[in-house]
Design brief:
The complex is a heterodimer. By secondary structure, chain A is mostly beta strands. Chain A is globular, with a radius of gyration of 14 Å. Helices cover 0% and strands 50% of the residues of chain A. Chain A has a single domain, classed as Immunoglobulins (Immunoglobulin-like), CATH 2.60.40.10. In chain B, 0% of the residues lie in helices and 50% in strands. In chain B, strands 2, 4, 5, 6, 9, 10 and 11 form a seven-stranded mixed beta sheet that branches. In chain B, strands 1-3-8-7 form a four-stranded antiparallel beta sheet, with no helix packed on it. Classes of the chains: A mainly beta, B mainly beta. Chains A and B meet through strand 3, strand 4, strand 8 and strand 9 of A and strand 4, strand 5 and strand 10 of B.
Chain lengths: 113, 111
């Protein structure tokens, strides 16, 4: 989850298409991962989580995939809607007492009409 | 159930002034956190607390102080504000090392 500076990666998708947002995590010992959605001017909102004993978890219109071999997470959003436009970021639990979560800088999802 | 509540939402400070960001949660979470978020960056942990009376430094604690006298409240104090403290601040809470729930943020500008 290193910073990529002032300009977030942006993903533009057509309304109704599926979106895939990717995240690389840093610690092979991390065993719990969360995806958050952050709309402009608001706090991060929990979307879905997954533990390291799973490869896939599904929610309503969202799926998280975990590939521990290459330390990679992805968030799939089905039938993307205008309300899905936001910054999405992943968090990994480093299991370091209270300093447990490390957050990526995120990807901006822009839904085109 | 309001979740995590932060005040104020917006504040402009002059260099050298002090202020306190208030945070309260009503979920009976034992862990509470303060993060700052700068443009294009991931959330950086300032301070955290694993229970009333216990606080610890995070990644970027310089220039800040916290206290945790109750389970519900976790105020963040800025002493001698500097332009580098211009940022968005998020308070958060969790039950142990599980999902972290965030407040709506406090936008601070130091001029």
């Amino acid at each position: 989850g290193e910073s990529v500076g002032l300009h977030l990666p942006t993903l533009s998708v057509q309304e109704g298409d599926n979106s895939i947002i990717n995240c690389a995590y840093s610690n092979s010992a991390s065993d719990y991962f969360i995806w958050y959605k952050q709309e402009s001017g608001k706090g991060p909102q929990f979307i879905i989580d997954i533990r390291s004993n799973m490869d896939k978890r599904q929610g309503q219109r969202v799926t998280v995939l975990l590939n521990k071999t290459v330390k990679h997470l992805s968030l799939q959003i089905a039938a993307t809607q205008p309300g899905d436009s936001a910054v999405y970021f992943c968090a990994e639990n480093m299991r370091n007492y209270g300093q447990n979560f490390v957050f990526g800088p995120g990807t901006r999802l822009s839904v085109l009409p | 159930n309001a979740g995590v509540t932060q005040t104020p939402k917006f504040r402009i400070l002059k260099i050298g002034q002090s202020m306190t960001l208030q945070c309260a949660q009503d979920m009976n979470h034992n862990y509470m956190y303060w993060y700052r978020q700068d443009p294009g960056m991931g959330l950086k942990l300032i301070y955290y607390s694993v229970g009333a009376g216990i606080t610890d430094k995070g990644e970027v604690p310089n220039g800040y102080n916290v206290s945790r006298s109750t389970t519900e409240d976790f105020p963040l104090r800025l002493e001698l504000a500097a332009p580098s403290q211009t940022s968005v601040y998020f308070c958060a809470s969790s039950f142990g090392e599980n999902t972290i729930y965030f407040g709506e943020g406090s936008w601070l500008t130091v001029v």
